[in-house]
# Entry
Amino acid sequence: GKCGCSGDLEAGSQFQFGEQTKEWNERDQTAVQVCLTPEDMLEKYYFPFVYIEMNVNPLSLIPVGENFRNQIYWDGKSISVSEARPEIDVGVIRTVEWQGGLKLVPDREVHKMELWLDSPNVGAFLPITEVWDLQPEVNDNNTYTAEVSFCGFKPDLTAGEYLYLGTQKVRWGTQACLGEEDVEILVDDDGEMNIYYMGVNVIYQEHNIGMDHADGYWRNFLYYDNMVTPIIEDSFRPNLLIDGSRNITHAWSQESVNKLSIQMNDKVHTLKYVIDVDNHVAEMDENNEWSIKIIYKQFQPGGVCPEAPPSPSPPP
# Structure
């Protein structure tokens, strides 16, 4: 007669997430807590995950056949399906590294992670051309759970690459050569003589390139030349999420408090931007100053902007 026997796939008691080795939850026990840190990360958002496949149940009499697949659930949603797995013989215990690691965006919640071995659900998540064979087992209760949170991740506020002055998009760390088309002019005729007020519209940016959201409220200052007080002061800056960015616009008008007022001349001027001036936000990198040089076209030789020096090439 035919043997009605099966293999039995299990994940053992331990797994490794990043640098940490943990035990899976025992059924109905207090949840295992894994708190992933920046040290556990392979690269941005990718965490190495290593687990065990074994076929050692005393009732397991044959190998578990090939092409079964394992699956990771995160808060009840499938986030990753393994490659087709090779056969595993009776008595074999093997360590498996999840290909490419798991992509997880740090936040402040506690998440339920589940590993499903020989998952019956992968069909919905695989292209039709991918091979997948569900294998019969002695015990197909193959779900292992852990609770995962994130510790020690910080935001990082930056200025982005550019700001806008008048009609021009200018890269931080370079020099802007502004012409009349970039300058707003107000002529005040007091009957005796004309008084000229001049200024430039400014749009600067805030980016959060870190791994946690930046909690408000912080202050940004912009300085022109050697002025001790900022020309633009933006207070009560609200939360900025991971990978968030936004523009802050200051159109020039003589009545405005926050504005870039200028006198056009032949000097080289400096515009400096300091984000989070009070260090309210604990960041990955607290270096929060950017600047550019500004010259005025009509005061250059021949009324022509000099050739811009080539941008430094990125390091190899």
In short: The chain is about 0% helix and 40% strand. Residues 110 and 149 are 5 Å apart (CA to CA).
